Every structure is written in structure tokens, then in C-alpha cells.
């Protein structure tokens, strides 16, 4: 444990004894700490698995589909868990004015900018209109680069001319 954290813990315990507080159990802080630690442990586990599969000996042992799944899907899952871990750490600290020393936000807020941008960009790719076009591109579809101009034939009708002539004639 860091010296500053140990000092804070001892200082808080001394203040509680001095004030005569017998029960110091705060449900919100306990839940926040449990969730924070659990998310951190899961993120560390996912990142460890991701690191092991990046080793050349392991990467050569798996096929391309498994490697792609691990590096992309598991990578985004690990990034999401690490982001949740950081968000849980700053549960109520983000809105505490005492945390903004020199009018700068706390470091955990600054650290979240890039991961949240990546995750929001990934979510933007799941929008149906973008996902459909991306799926077509992955399957080899290419939009034609050339514009073709064609003149309609004399007998080319779209069916509206017939219905308009019926309305005029009273049919």
C-alpha cells in the first residue's frame, strides 16, 4: 500500500476515534470500492489474456479467426472494463469542487478522454446504416466510380401517366 493511502487510512481512523464514532460503515463507499476492485481485476485478467495471445509463439498456434476475435472483440471488452474501472473510481469525485485544484480536472477524468472516444467511435460503427455499408465493403462490394448517363426510350413509362389519364377522363 502506498504511504499516502496508509496515512489517509490512519488519519481517518484517528479522527473517528477522536470523534467517538463507533460505526463507520458507509454502504455507498463499500459498494463503490467492491465494484471498483472487481472491474479492475476483470480488466487486468482480460488484458493479461490479450497480452499472452500477442506473443509470437501463441499467435502462430491459433488460426486467423481466433486471433482476430481475441485481438478485436476481447480488446474492446478489456478497454470497456478498464474504462468502467476508472469511472467507478471517480464515482463522486468528478463533481467534487475540492478535487479541481488549480482549476484543472482530476487525472482520472483526463485519462478517460481517449478510451471513451475510441468506444464511442466503435459504437458509431454499429449504427445500422454504417454497419450495413461496412459489411458490404468487407464482402468486396465497391461503389462504381463512373457515372453512366442514359436517355430514356420513347416508350418508357413509369405507370403514373396511365393513372393520371384515367383521372382526367373520369374512369
Walk me through this protein's architecture:
This protein is mostly helical. It has a domain of 113 residues. It contains 8 helices and no strands. Helix 2 runs antiparallel to helix 4. 5% of the residues are buried.
List keywords for this structure.
171 residues, mainly alpha, 67% helix, elongated, ferric-chelate reductase (NADPH) activity, cupric reductase (NADH) activity, transmembrane
Topology summary:
Layout: H1 3-19, H2 27-53, H3 56-61, H4 64-89, H5 107-111, H6 113-124, H7 128-138, H8 160-169
Helix pairs in contact: 2-4
Number of strands: 0
Helices and strands, in order, run as HHHHHHHH
Shape: elongated
Beta fraction of the residues? under 5%
Q: Kindly report the average pLDDT value.
A: 83
Q: Pairing-aware structural class of the strands and helices? A: mainly alpha
Which regions are unreliable across 5 or more consecutive residues at pLDDT < 50? none
Portion of residues within helices = 55-70%
Largest sheet: none
Count of separate DSSP helical elements: 8
Describe the oligomeric state of these chains in a short phrase. Answer: single chain
Radius of gyration: 30 Å
Question: Distance N terminus to C terminus?
Answer: 91 Å
Keywords: Membrane, Transmembrane, Transmembrane helix
GO molecular function: cupric reductase (NADH) activity; ferric-chelate reductase (NADPH) activity
Transmembrane segments: 35-55, 67-88, 108-131
Protein name: Metalloreductase STEAP2
Amino acid at each position: 500500500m502506498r504511504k499516502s493511502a496508509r496515512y489517509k487510512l490512519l488519519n481517518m481512523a484517528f479522527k473517528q476515534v477522536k470523534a467517538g464514532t463507533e460505526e463507520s460503515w458507509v454502504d455507498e463507499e463499500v459498494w463503490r470500492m467492491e465494484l471498483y476492485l472487481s472491474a479492475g481485476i476483470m480488466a487486468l485478467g482480460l488484458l493479461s489474456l490479450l497480452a499472452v495471445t500477442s506473443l509470437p509463439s501463441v499467435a502462430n498456434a491459433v488460426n486467423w479467426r481466433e486471433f482476430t476475435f481475441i485481438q478485436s472483440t476481447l480488446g474492446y471488452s478489456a478497454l470497456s472494463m478498464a474504462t468502467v474501472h476508472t469511472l467507478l473510481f471517480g464515482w463522486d469525485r468528478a463533481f467534487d469542487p475540492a478535487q479541481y485544484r488549480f482549476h484543472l480536472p482530476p487525472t482520472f477524468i483526463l485519462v478517460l478522454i481517449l478510451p471513451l472516444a475510441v468506444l464511442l467511435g466503435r459504437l458509431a460503427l454499429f449504427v445500422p446504416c454504417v454497419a450495413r455499408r461496412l459489411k458490404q465493403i468487407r464482402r468486396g462490394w465497391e461503389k462504381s466510380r463512373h457515372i453512366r448517363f442514359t436517355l430514356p426510350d420513347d416508350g418508357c413509362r413509369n405507370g403514373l401517366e396511365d393513372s393520371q389519364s384515367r383521372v382526367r377522363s373520369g374512369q
